[in-house]
UniProtKB/TrEMBL annotation:
The protein, known as: ABC transporter permease
Species per Swiss-Prot/TrEMBL record: Candidatus Magasanikbacteria bacterium RIFCSPHIGHO2_01_FULL_50_8
Record-annotated membrane-spanning stretches: 20-42, 62-83, 111-133, 140-164, 176-193, 229-248
InterPro entries tied to this protein: ABC-2_transporter-like
Keywords from the UniProt entry: Membrane, Transmembrane, Transmembrane helix
């Protein structure tokens, strides 16, 4: 079996597992649609009173938060708890004897899960795209850069998630570290509020972190507020990628040693 075929099957496994959970899949789709509807009602009410949020028009904010929900679904890191459970229950052994990296297996499988999850939000998102089609960029390059930044954001979240999951072999669970990551990411990524609306000191911290790649930066391409990346942004992204990848690989090796030493 070729490497490409192997990973394609792992990817399809992630999609199959998500689709098999039919009722939960329906609830997830309904919840996402309701969340989007609430945001639309809220921001419409705010702007009807004559308020203005920074330089954003009502249409821009609605587009921002609609795509933000989509990225939130894609960047979910709940797989951390599954890895932690496998470590606790001794179910990791099956992956140690397979001729494939567990980190690669986990990443590709989870990407399949995320694709299936995004599909659950396809209908309301399509409604947003159709309704605001004249406000969205018509440049193919903008959408390519949006997709590329989103994929990089997914990699960042996945590497952070793997790091937290590996702490399970030293601590009871990674919930504390995971919750800290979620809170930090929620604030600095631009998911809660666009980065350019943050106080200057907080926006500066955010721009030196990897979190804008998770939400804020991709959405700037959607709104047409960004045409590319600065050298500084590329260097920041590269440094964080190298640090996170190295840390995740080292944490995995140490976790395996401790896992095997424990006789699991």
């Amino acid at each position: 079996m070729s490497v490409a075929t192997k990973y394609a099957r792992i990817f399809s496994l992630g999609i199959s597992e998500m689709l098999a959970w039919r009722f939960g899949y329906f609830v997830m789709a309904l919840g996402s649609a309701i969340n989007l509807l609430v945001l639309f009602i809220f921001w419409t009410a705010v702007y009807q009173d004559g308020n203005q949020i920074g330089s954003y028009s009502l249409e821009q904010l609605l587009i921002y938060y609609a795509f933000s929900i989509t990225l939130q679904i894609l960047m979910d890191y709940s797989f951390v708890w599954g890895v932690s459970e496998a470590l606790h229950q001794g179910n990791l052994s099956q992956y140690l004897i397979r001729p494939i990296s567990y980190i690669n297996f986990l990443f590709v499988k989870e990407f399949g899960v995320r694709v299936a999850t995004i599909a659950s939000f396809a209908v309301p998102l399509a409604g947003v795209v159709i309704y605001f089609h004249d406000r969205l960029p018509n440049s193919l390059l903008a959408w390519i850069l949006f997709a590329a930044t989103t994929v990089f954001g997914f990699i960042v979240v996945s590497l952070f998630g793997i790091l937290f999951a590996m702490t399970t072999v030293w601590f009871q669970n990674p919930h504390i570290a995971g919750s800290l990551f979620f809170t930090t990411s929620f604030l600095l990524s631009g998911r809660l509020v666009p980065i350019d609306l943050m106080p200057a000191w907080l926006a500066s911290i955010a721009r030196w972190s990897p979190f804008p790649f998770v939400t804020g930066m991709p959405l700037e391409f959607v709104l047409g507020n960004r045409a590319g990346f600065s050298i500084q942004e590329l260097l920041i992204g590269l440094v964080w990628f190298v640090v996170l990848l190295f840390s995740a690989q080292r944490a995995w090796k140490w976790a395996v040693i401790k896992y095997e030493a424990g006789g699991a």
